[in-house]
């Protein structure tokens, strides 16, 4: 899309309306470390980023819900009635805002529908939580338009429930939590079991966190994501024959090593090992950032990727080429895949003075070994959901 586009004017043109328009923004997120620990009751360490989703809305005088995305203009306006909000596979991206409305109608009566325009600058399918960003942007817009004042934690839980019960992906709560409660220049250490959280400073002066998109599209519902969850559940059941635990996230490395023989399936044992050791790495990473020790933090990124590659087996050729190439570059403190895996993105902690050479070298190797280019993004560590009072230029 060309730059300089005014979203408010786009809204007025697409929906042919002069109704008052309100605009909300929900960020995307990166997970610094703590991968596939969220649905296992462990800790994660995400941060909101400056890329995200804009949602512009205006109330209608009837019960219609009309949705349009500037990212998918070929689908046109997707229209439904507030009384007919069932999941529709053909409506693809629109199921996320529809899901929010659908679940809220069980608690709130919407007397009027709405026209809603979405625009996101999160790369589609990159694993930076574009779906959760749409969900939280929709919830914030509904709060504003209908003045129903859903509590922020309830908004976060609502987004996860849409994923689990409406879309059908057994994802954890990390994505929605980091988007709903992110803090500028900070990462969040979140206990996914208790939802207790702490912030750690992430002020980068001489370094940047660079996002590298493999450009291999992925869909959680079409991957082995749910299988990994089942493997972890089986491992937990085996351990519970002796241990009084409710999740793998409760285990220390020492307790796991002493009891891992209880897990009968070799693959399940590898999955559980990753979760336990990754959870320990995440807690250590929090301490590193509290101390400002970026070098130790970077080493944890490296060992995280090795575990995701060898024990959890969710990386794949594209992510491995990027990360293993990144490790060899000057000025790199650490690199790993981020997100669910099976494509999507990697992150690297790089000294600013070496950034351009890093991008060139990594991309050249990637093209040579994979056959197409990677895309690089340099986000700021951003804030959470906000309302924007003036028209947005993109």
Please provide a written account of the structure:
With 394 residues, this protein is of the alpha+beta class. It has two domains: 7-199 and 381-388, Ribosomal Protein S5, domain 2; 204-377, GHMP kinase, C-terminal domain (Alpha-Beta Plaits, 2-Layer Sandwich), CATH 3.30.70. 39% of the residues lie in helices and 21% in strands. The protein has eleven helices and 13 strands. The chain has helices spanning 7-15, 95-104, 130-146, 152-167, 174-181, 225-239, 253-259, 266-291, 294-310, 317-327, 355-370, and strands at 22-31, 43-44, 46-59, 64-69, 78-81, 114-120, 186-191, 197-201, 207-213, 332-338, 345-351, 375-377, 386-388. The strands form three sheets. The chain has a six-stranded mixed sheet with strand order 5-4-6-3-1-13, sandwiched between helices. A four-stranded antiparallel sheet has the order 10-11-9-12. The chain has a three-stranded antiparallel sheet with strand order 2-7-8, with helices on both faces. A hairpin with a 6-residue loop joins strand 10 (332-338) and strand 11. Helix 3 packs across helix 4.
Q: Give the beta-strand count.
A: 13
**What is the 3D form?**
globular
User: How many structurally independent domains?
Assistant: 2
Our Rg estimate from Cα atoms comes to 21 Å
Largest sheet: 6 strands, mixed
Percent of residues in beta strands:
15-25%
Q: Taking strands numbered 1, 2, ... along the chain, how are they ordered across the largest sheet?
A: 5-4-6-3-1-13
| Share of helix, binned | 25-40%
Low-confidence stretches: none
Identify the CATH architecture of the largest domain: 2-Layer Sandwich
Number of helices: 11
Q: Any idea of the CATH class of the largest domain?
A: Alpha Beta
Structural classification: alpha+beta
Average pLDDT number: 93
Elements, N to C (H/E): HEEEEEHEHHHEEEHHHHHEEHEE
CATH topology of the largest domain: Ribosomal Protein S5, domain 2
Distance between the termini: 9 Å
